[in-house]
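I would like you to sit down with the record closing this message with an eye to the fold:
=====
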Amino acid sequence: MLKYLIGIDVGTSALKTALFTLNGRAVAQADAPYPVHYPHPGWAEQHPDDWWRALCTAMKQMLGEAGVNPRDVAAIGVAGQSWSAVLIDSQGQALNRTPIWMDTRSRACCQDAVRTIGEDAIFSISGNPLQPTYTLPKLLWYQKHHPGLMRCADKVLQSNGYIVYRLTGSVTQDKSQGYGFAFFDMQHGTWNLSLARAFGISPSLLPDIGDCHQMAGHVTAEAARQTGLCEGIPVVLGGLDAACGTLGAGVYQNGQTQEQGGQAGGMSICMDHMVADRRLILSRHVVPDLWLLQGGAVGGGGLLRWIRQEFCLHEENLARTSGASAYAEMDRAAAAIPPGSEGLVFLPYMAGERSPIWDPDAKGVLFGLDYAKTRAHVIRAGMEGAAFALRHNCETAANAGAAISSLHAMGGAANSKVWTQIKADITGYTIHVPSSDTATALGAALLAGVGVGAYAGFEEAVRQTVSIRRTHVPNPAVKSLYDKAYRTYRQLYDNTKNLMKEAAHESGGIT
């Protein structure tokens, strides 16, 4: 009997694999890291082959630790980071490192395209303004700066699409990742080929587009040899990591909302109809006939990782002594600081900022430092800064007409009770934390399960696998403190954004 599903998560810092029973229990997990390359200001790249090598490492480790027969795996789903532009040649070889979601080099290309085609014409089809972090501008940048590369390219793939290709040999594009192309028809879930041609993109470069739970193919003999899997395991198209995580957090019905606490932060509101807003991100859900209105912030787990690396040698040493993690020690330090961090406010714009301000020149700011402030203040202020970014996105969505009743948290940050309570207090929303902290991989696995008929549909898949582990209710006693700090947070950016832009020009950050 086929007993297991595998979810793969192509993240920003590492690739993660997880083996689940059909009731959602994680039997085994593994991950393998890879680098992000920053060769120039505004650039952020990864090599797709690093993703594949990480998958081979993590999969072998996971299967070995699980002690299960790979022949008992029913299907595999793949979640991937957004907005890759992986060019492969006719032999399936990745031609170069791909710019990832943090890369902003194509700003000038965006401006040229908007002038030529028109902002309204783009928005009316895609439901999104053209942003340099998206996939299409990266292709436009290739055309302008490396036309030979584009001539050698046979297809363009997303991160999950590349892993699916390496597993099966099938070239695919799922609907949930389509929004990175401004010629993706958001209403109908299809390519608008006339608009693609207007951008100068040949339709032959585009894979056929399909539903995320649609069968892509089966694990090949070569992929089985490299990964430790068995030949013939079905693989589905998979989808956007945030959307897979949304499903894995139990969000699949109109009005439900996911709060993301991975490398980046943000939220995704599930809708049964399109609600587009130029300040936010609109995508298809991995569940058919649903959309996600998303807020994507740079400040998330990556921010806390940076704070740990640069400020928290003491917590690292305590962790080695106590046997706890450094993040647990950071939680303890942050919990000892009063809400509002006694006036210390952190703008978490460590790689520019995405929605709702869309400013690639935005920089991180620590405001309110004095001799009374400690390392623990910095830790808590970082957590609060990420929560302020979440509130900013939630407020923007509410103003656009998308209602939020409560949040379902996912990602590694949801393991922090301190940070999750901070988010509840700052946003004013109750936050539910599902039982699994592997929501993204679980969502990918559920796509695979639905795709092969292990579940009758998405409702049954969520009912069988997702349960709430704990709930955080906002504390009204600290609301006024956070309201004041939030006003400072908003004013800090408004008062410094011109300085940030001038600094970017002076440093050569504008490309």
In short: Residues 191 and 232 are 30 Å apart (CA to CA). The two ends are 56 Å apart (CA to CA). The first strand starts at residue 4 and ends at 10. The mean pLDDT is 95.
